[in-house]
Amino acid sequence: VALVELLLPPLPAHVRTARLVVGAAARRAGLPDELVDELRLALGETCGRAVLLHAQHAPEERVQVTVRDDPGGLTVTVRDRHPSGPAAGAQGADVADLLGADEAADDPDERVGGGDIALAVVHGLVDDVSVEPGPDGTTVTMRWPLPARPGGTPSTAASADAARSALPG
Amino acid sequence: VDLSLSTRTEGDRTVVVVGGEIDVYTAPKLREQLIDLVSSGQYHLVVDMEGVEFLDSTGLGVLVGGLKRVRAHEGSLRLVCTQERILKIFRITGLTKVFPIHGSVDEAVSATD
């Protein structure tokens, strides 16, 4: 069941909004607090990466964030419309080196490592994550198990309302 | 305010107190602050992260950039952080080996290694 669907214009300020909304929905769905922290960080990384790529290459396209409460747990998907996909070295890369190389570039356009760093952090953080590059963009899917709930699943409509009301402004 | 920044001098060190959220939106402000300090000749920095509620990889990038800048002047950049949720991201990224991380501002200010 889809709890939250967001379409974000590629502005850095919106990444915080996405963290708040998705964090609220995840807590509401029953994800334990320490995993909500993990989710907020992972979402911030994937969303921030997508927003920066869009801002450079597809400023009119929106970043899509979806949260689903599925039988297997909570699934968070971030889809960008940047066609080149992630660089191959994302997994297992030395983040300290990437960060150093990035900051050494004075021209922001040379900070190509940003997406790699974000994905490297996500891979380090989240046990269940998949990155699917494609000609129309990249989809990052992250999953967290939800603890069994006594009395069955809560009203998903209530969860979606809670998430909406958490939107600032 | 999403990010708060203030600086003070303790001996030959400059303490930068950071509060709030360091992310893709606010990290440029921290970068500017660190560049300003180095430009004005302050090469021994202590960044107090105890008030930081959120830190992502763009924030880490700014801290690494600050470290490179002070090292170009034989300076130092020390972090003060005891929050487990913030320390976790330094560990994941291997940056605990790059930054000296202290338990208090006093400890960081008096450190000489």
Structure description:
The complex is a heterodimer of chains A (169) and B (113). With 169 residues, chain A is of the alpha+beta class. In chain A, 43% of the residues lie in helices and 22% in strands. Chain A is built from 5 helices and 5 strands; from the N terminus they run E-H-H-E-E-H-H-E-E-H. In chain A, strands 1-2-3-5-4 form a 5-stranded antiparallel sheet. The radius of gyration of chain A is 16 Å and the shape is globular. About 7% of the residues of chain A have low confidence. By secondary structure, chain B is an alpha/beta fold. Chain B has 4 helices and 5 strands. A 5-stranded mixed sheet of chain B has the order 1-2-3-4-5. In chain B, strand 3, helix 2 and strand 4 form a beta-alpha-beta unit. In chain B, helix 1 packs parallel to helix 2. The longest helix of chain B has 15 residues. Chain B is globular and about 30 Å long. The N and C termini of chain B lie far apart (36 Å). The interface between A and B is medium-sized, with 28 and 23 residues.
List its traits.
heterodimer, A: 169 residues, alpha+beta, five-stranded antiparallel sheet, 5 helices, 5 strands, 43% helix, globular, B: 113 residues, alpha/beta
